[in-house]
Amino acid sequence: MAIKTAEQMAGEQREISVAEFFEKNRHLLGFDNPMKALLITVKEMVDNSLDACQEAGIMPEIKVKLKIINEDRIKISVEDNGPGIMKEQMPRIFGKLLYGSKFYKMQQSRGQQGIGVSAALLYSQLTTGKATLVRSRTAANKPVHEMTIRIDTMKNEPIILNNITYDKTFNDHGTYIEMEIEGKYRKGDRSVDEYMKETAISNPFAKFTYYVDSEKIIYPRLIDKLPIEAKSIKPHPYGVELGIFERMAKNTKAKSVLSFITNDFCRVGSGTAKAVLKMAKVSPNNKPNHLDHQEIEKILKGLQKSKIMNPPTNCLSPIGEQVLEKAVQKDLKTEFQAAITRPPSVYRGMPFLIEVCIGYGGELNPKGTAQIMRFANRVPLLYQASSCAVTKAVQSIAWGQYHVEHQGNNPTGPLVIAVHMASVWIPYTSESKEALEPYPEISKEIRLAIQDCARKLKSYLAGKKRRQLDAKRKGLFEKYLPTVADALADLSEENNAMILKSLEVIVKKEKIEGEDIDDAGEAEEIREETNE
Amino acid sequence: MAIKTAEQMAGEQREISVAEFFEKNRHLLGFDNPMKALLITVKEMVDNSLDACQEAGIMPEIKVKLKIINEDRIKISVEDNGPGIMKEQMPRIFGKLLYGSKFYKMQQSRGQQGIGVSAALLYSQLTTGKATLVRSRTAANKPVHEMTIRIDTMKNEPIILNNITYDKTFNDHGTYIEMEIEGKYRKGDRSVDEYMKETAISNPFAKFTYYVDSEKIIYPRLIDKLPIEAKSIKPHPYGVELGIFERMAKNTKAKSVLSFITNDFCRVGSGTAKAVLKMAKVSPNNKPNHLDHQEIEKILKGLQKSKIMNPPTNCLSPIGEQVLEKAVQKDLKTEFQAAITRPPSVYRGMPFLIEVCIGYGGELNPKGTAQIMRFANRVPLLYQASSCAVTKAVQSIAWGQYHVEHQGNNPTGPLVIAVHMASVWIPYTSESKEALEPYPEISKEIRLAIQDCARKLKSYLAGKKRRQLDAKRKGLFEKYLPTVADALADLSEENNAMILKSLEVIVKKEKIEGEDIDDAGEAEEIREETNE
Fold first, then answer.
1. CA-to-CA distance for A419 and A451, rounded, in angstroms?
2. Which of A387, A463, B241, B457 is the most buried (most CB within 10 A)?
């Protein structure tokens, strides 16, 4: 046996680049089969385009093209009218993993990690050996920059193969990316088609043009205003871990501990701060980077035990109830839809809010399990439904109570349940961003939102049933009116025709006494619904 | 709205260190709750100790201590008698993510990524703010080195806080690590206790001493020999992706394309190589780093379409059937056990093999679902059972056919099914290394192995039933022997006592004619079993 010494083992140790790591472990980023790889590539590009447009205050117009080269190869291009990318930034944004602007911000955005589009590029070169073309312009009076980019995997650094500047016809501002990957195009569930449809629902302020070879679908803009801006916030003490708190104390610009904890965090007032410092026996004027480990731990524990207001929630940008209903109605052709935007809530110091829209009937498939659409910061989630907080919440609801048919825990029938989570930090269960971690606070909010919409649906269904019943009764009654009139004429010796006419007038009032309303609450909801 | 230009956005772009990335996304490494964090920390340390001992040809003796500081805090220490770590290597092995020797090797080992123990250290400092103590010695005539280490998260580099060299009493060679984490100790499923028990089963050549505060459990060594050495192999063309093939061509030391593809890969003979190059219209003497993209693609495609022998499988180190049976019998006190080590197979160019041991009866819990133990390169997998290839294989088997009770797809009763996958590359479904990806080749091997053991179990159960039946019949017969003897004595006028004695002799032969054996195959298996 080749026995090794510590010295020999030491000689084998080496640094591994993050690009190599993810190249070998690409399933962690979701590139585990050709269908999913295609979806994720499109998604990362579109996410970036939408984020950039929103940040720049531009109404997005995005073109997505799939060109199917053969069964296993697809060329993907995405073009936007966004703010464009500075020439100097282009190589690193596309050719370096873990590079970006969103990682450090506590802000609601689609991308968060600085890993998405560069991972797609890595996958493209791994599977096809080809480089990625990027073209961008920042203003009409600026030139168009075009590069082909690869990643030096061993170093996690970009390699620029071709770099030209020209005045070619292009949008006044915007970015165009084109890459070829090993991928499979399929229709149906979890397809790019489905992704585009759902993205149009959650981003009704954008116009999408989607091509698959020569086929073309346009998703027009449904509203003419960008959503309210998602602001970035400071961390809240409830969501900060000891190690990070310690690092913040070492690196802060604040000169005193007091100003450190009141300025670098949100919602810590000077009263609370002083009380906590007193308990921890630390002078408010101490330098934060002079604190020792024990002091730091005492201060953070003190803060976490204090009553501190929840973080501000104006940092969140919901889709909005009316917009959501309109988008569901327009894109899915439902006969009924009810949405709710819940008030913001907090998990682990992170503000978040849940929105739900339930759509019913119309052109929805009347058979089988209801469709669940999951969105995180407006991005549709198409994989790992079963481990997602949304699916678990849907299955935890007693659908029978809401007169919704169900098989086991799953609602069935012509029903769609769209759930959107907006947050400064989405807790995905994996880096491929496919499912939401079911933190108790999040699960609770999703349940409450679904129940709210389900109650409205119940009223609608009850109303619909009642109207059907009324119509049936009325029909029956009308059928026998002449007979009744005859009988009454015989009894009263009045004119038959007169009696019949009077009876018809009564029936037309459509008032039937003794309605079967389940409970007072439902009656109230019906009234609410009628007012809408 | 604060509208941003491309220039302003560029100013916000930043590089993110891999340590920061995993600090923020620690759930990806499995540190998502305090119970699991404890398990993973212990596991990473023990994995490293076992790997190092095996590489150095040392029979491992490992001490694992948990000291419960309070409900949320645990101090963990692991001490081994391994080869020790060179002073220069200590900081980077523990204080830098993505640093190690195993990432580049195609070799069966527990650790693979160079991320495990440094991730535990990162988690420790994040949750407790404390540094990790490491003590190591490489030989009796060398000093003991001791350091306390932190990670500079922003740079992913180690910080050495304290560095002393002394002759303190310590093993002649070995390593001691001690860290404090936010963790929860619990008994039962998926606990450290369960992990230690299963680790002892899959590593019967090691001695473990496991302390929880003052409680102590010793798992003695069951065999006195290290497993056969796991050798590292060259990549097989079937498992190489285009991007990696291209990179290998650029970086190879080979002077010609022919020597590149015959020397840098396994199983590519010069005949195959020449034929492939001819098809690709590339001269065998070309320099590999002069190949253009098209040529490279043609060569790889050619290789992948050629018939190439499977990779060598002597690189794998199985536990072994007898060892596995012995370990299951000793540690779980079963009344029956059957194991099989399947011949090696290949998925995506990676050699792997599957071993299964089924244990039955004895001290196993007679009620409820059968216990499934999953091992990957001798490491027990305790989480994410439902998405693991092993669980899926177990549930795909018609247990009724093997006379094993079951509820739905799950076998029940006093049954344990231990499945071990050994491979140069374990396809985990996530970086927290909890479940095996169900590649078809892997799933098939697991099924075949389980079915093999299940057939042996069926025979055993049939034999057991028969013996019980025999005993019952014999009992009945004996009960009525005196009556029969009386009757015979009356009829034959022979001596009653004589007849009874003869009858008893016949019964003692324990031969009953007309046995109910289901089919010939089973009869054969019973014979096999009897021979063991």
1. 12
2. B457
